[in-house]
Design goal:
Order of helices and strands: EHEEEHEHEHEHHEEEHH
GO cellular component, one term: cytosol
Helix content: 25-40%
Number of strands: 10
Oligomer: single chain
EC number: 2.7.1.49, 2.7.4.7
Protein name: Hydroxymethylpyrimidine/phosphomethylpyrimidine kinase
Shape: globular
Mean pLDDT: 95
CATH superfamily: Ribokinase
Structural class: alpha/beta
Number of domains: 1
Strand content: 15-25%
Radius of gyration: 17 Å
Strand order of the largest sheet: 2-1-5-6-7-8-9-10
Domain Pyridoxamine kinase/Phosphomethylpyrimidine kinase: 14-257
InterPro entries: HMP/HMP-P_kinase_dom, PM/HMP-P_kinase-1, Ribokinase-like
Bound molecules: adenosine-5'-triphosphate, 4-amino-5-hydroxymethyl-2-methylpyrimidine
CATH architecture: 3-Layer(aba) Sandwich
Number of helices: 8
CATH topology: UDP-N-acetylmuramoyl-L-alanine:D-glutamate ligase
Distance between the termini: 48 Å
CATH class: Alpha Beta
Largest sheet: 8 strands, mixed
């Protein structure tokens, strides 16, 4: 048996490389996990925004999933953009039969404001997918939709993480603080305790795909056998460095630097 650890992402694409499947595979590679991907939607987007979305037929998503699971069983799976209820139901049926870690990044709206999840899917992700999850990683607007109250500070984020675990049925939830002000504080609740992951907030517009990268690193670390708390701590350090060592590319909200953590001892590589 091979000792190689593998992770699968089930998500939409970003041809400009900063978010979605592309960001996930880069993150898996940096964390030395063999990366695999099932495409749900092909998205025409870049650092300026989304221009169009092409949803793949559900039967074709199912075929891709069968291709992976019948050959290389991943050690951990993450889902990102899943646009429709039908897609979610097919993915849930397949993941129910697996006993691997499952990380949900409940992608709803891109940073540019474009809807990546159809409205009725919000109920399905809550009722059908979240109960299967090891970790759910909503940003503040996504957590607000999942728990149905407003989040303006870390106390609210704590309450939301607890609801996602105790009422919606995930094993753990991290509510990310990217959309709040002050230090960037992410709150993890894992049924037993709260854990807080803090970093300075970098003053930058280049945060395209931060959520995808963060959840992909959690998935990679779970695939390697790390605990949820350890995996989130590594992901927080990884994304902090990826934001700090900005690449400064793209005409809009640029991507993060997936090899930023390797540059820790070097000066900022960034553009503007
Ligand atoms: N300006 C910043 N400085 C430092 N850390 C940040 C900053 N913005 C976001 N983060 C961190 O990045 C991670 C992702 O959080 P964020 O809330 O931005 O995700 P997101 O909105 O889902 O991202 P996206 O939709 O672009 O994929 C979290 O760990 C958060 O604390
Ligand atoms: C495909 C995809 N997934 C997630 C996001 C959120 O960053 C995005 N912009 N595109």
């Amino acid at each position: 048996m091979s000792k190689v650890r593998s992770a699968l992402t089930i998500a939409g694409t970003d041809p400009s490389g900063g978010a979605g499947i592309q960001a996930d595979l880069k993150s898996f590679q940096e964390r030395e996990v063999y990366g695999m991907s099932v495409v749900t939607s092909v998205v025409a987007q870049n650092t300026l925004g989304v221009t169009d979305i092409h949803n793949l037929p559900v039967s074709f998503i199912e075929k891709q999933l069968q291709s992976v699971f019948s050959d290389i069983e991943p050690n951990a799976v993450k889902t990102g953009m899943i646009a429709t209820v039908d897609m979610m139901e097919v993915i849930a049926e397949i993941l129910k039969k697996q006993s691997v870690h499952y990380v949900i990044d409940p992608v709803m709206v891109a940073k540019s404001g474009h809807n990546l999840m159809e409205e009725p899917s919000r109920k399905t992700i809550r009722d059908v997918l979240i109960p299967l999850a090891s970790v759910v990683t909503p940003n503040v607007p996504e957590a607000e939709i999942l728990v149905d109250f407003t989040i303006t500070n870390t106390e609210d984020a704590k309450r939301a993480a607890k609801v996602i675990v105790e009422e919606l049925g995930a094993k753990a939830a991290v509510v990310k603080g990217g959309h709040l002000t002050g230090e960037a504080i992410d709150v993890l609740y894992d049924k037993q305790d709260y854990h807080f992951f803090k970093s300075e907030r970098t003053n930058t517009k280049h945060t395209h795909g931060t959520g995808c990268t963060f959840s992909a690193v959690i998935t990679a670390e779970l695939a390697k056998g790390k605990s949820i708390v350890e995996a989130v701590a590594i992901a927080k350090q990884f994304i902090t460095d990826a934001i700090h060592y900005t690449l400064g590319i793209g005409k809009g909200n640029g991507p993060t630097n997936h090899w930023g953590y390797r540059l820790k001892s070097l000066p900022n590589q960034g553009g503007e």
